[in-house]
Design goal:
Elements (H helix, E strand, L loop, with lengths): L1 H13 L9 E4 L6 E4 L15 E6 L2 E2 L10 H8 L6 E5 L2 H8 L4 H5 L3 H4 L16 H11 L10 E4 L3 E6 L2 H20 L2
Antiparallel strand pairs: 1-2, 1-5, 2-3, 3-4, 5-7, 6-7
Helix pairs in contact: 2-6, 3-7
Bound molecules: zinc ion (ZN).
């Protein structure tokens, strides 16, 4: 499963959903006290299990060290706490971002496409917020969970920026973004 983190990032790059150093992915196996996350600033096409950052979890808190995890660590950690999910993926897919820039809420767009809503719950857009900020982390968490902290969607768009998805496996999270990106391309080309 750790190998899949690198495989997913390479596939995202080959599809031009990220540039070389963009995007991030984290993974946490149920019952295990380690968070695996892509390192900050590295070329994502070179990720192998040995370069994935391992952060111990002690008494429900992350133990930080001199390792350099992704700058979006807080967003990943908010979604990974309390075994909500096992994988979080953040990318910058072209048509998802373009659809939001054209003024559309992805939640509403997805309602028109059964190939998305049958398998992927799409949340309302996260507003335009600075990358790697605490505000982006908390707003993404707010859009993806209900007041009890339970997940209510599989993917959300983040205005002027990208999308974040969750899944049991990196490829599950990838597929949620893939489905949304596909219908966003159709939606924009139909106008
Ligand atoms: Zn980003």
């Amino acid at each position: 499963m750790i190998t899949a983190i690198g495989d997913v990032m390479r596939e995202a790059y080959s599809r031009r959903w990220i540039t070389t150093r963009d995007g991030n992915c984290s993974m946490r196996q149920r019952g295990r006290d380690t968070l695996y996350i892509t390192p900050s600033g590295t070329r994502k096409t070179t990720i192998i299990p040995e370069t994935v950052v391992r952060l111990p979890i002690f008494e429900s808190k992350l133990v930080l060290s001199d390792k350099r995890p992704s700058g979006e660590l807080e967003m990943h950690w908010l979604l990974q706490q309390e075994d909500k999910t096992q994988c979080v993926l953040h990318l910058h897919p072209t048509y998802i971002v373009a659809t939001m820039m054209a003024g559309h809420d992805l939640h509403d767009v997805a309602k028109e496409f059964p190939e998305v809503y049958r398998y992927t719950r799409v949340g309302h857009n996260v507003p335009k917020l600075p990358a790697v900020s605490a505000e982006l982390a908390s707003s993404t968490y707010f859009q993806m969970t209900d007041p009890s902290g339970a997940l209510i969607c599989d993917v959300v768009g983040q205005a002027n920026h990208g999308a974040t998805s969750v899944g049991k496996h990196p490829w599950d999270a990838f597929e949620h973004i893939e489905r949304l990106e596909h219908i966003c391309e159709i939606f924009l080309k139909s106008r």
